[in-house]
């Protein structure tokens, strides 16, 4: 029983890493209607900014705050000068642009700082606590708590604030939102900026666990996209729950399902996606989209 609980706890910790990126993807989609594949690269770039500042003697908290400000400006600039050219065109073209942007950002990070693993300081102590015979990392608890706070904040933003409602209106129908007097272009910049902020938080949480490299979030991005599909593109709570579910089931399948093991556990989220898309295409917590024709 202790082994089972330990696997669940470790899975929740891993799932929190996926959830951090998934929330950023949902935020961009909720604000612009696009899926941003470059989110992982932007998070890595923010982590490198914080790492450079800490190496210059800046306290970690201040370095992360600076990287968050940098990320907001980066997201807003990318939307204004790059993505705006594609947002009102074919959505598939815009998605391809974000994939190219991911490749570009990863290449720039590697060119500037190399591809060697760098140690990133942790926000939380590396100690563990024992609860009912299960060892729990304080860093994992801290990461999970930050993700829960981010999830609640996002849910509150889109459900109970004028800014969130305006962002949703722009994502659904920017032309009608403009006719209603909403500053569409400014709101699109804010949406990308806020998503980049979430990415910066994700990078700061993940880098101490994975070590900092230009491609450290490549695999996590795949799991984050799986969580988005499972949880639903319209539900911050849904993608966090889905990310936790992926992390837990992946761990349990690796240990208790003999033919999967640790080599094939990467297939677990894709099996879940296949099942969910058949039963509930909008995701476990997503809303059906009604289109008038």
TrEMBL record:
The chain crosses the membrane at residues 6-27, 60-82, 94-114, 145-167, 187-208, 220-247, 253-279. CDD domains: TM_PBP1_LivH_like. GO terms for cellular component: plasma membrane. It is found in: Cell membrane. Keywords: Amino-acid transport, Cell membrane, Membrane, Transmembrane, Transmembrane helix, Transport. It is a multi-pass membrane protein. Belongs to the binding-protein-dependent transport system permease family. LivHM subfamily. This is Branched-chain amino acid transport system permease protein. It comes from Blastococcus xanthinilyticus.
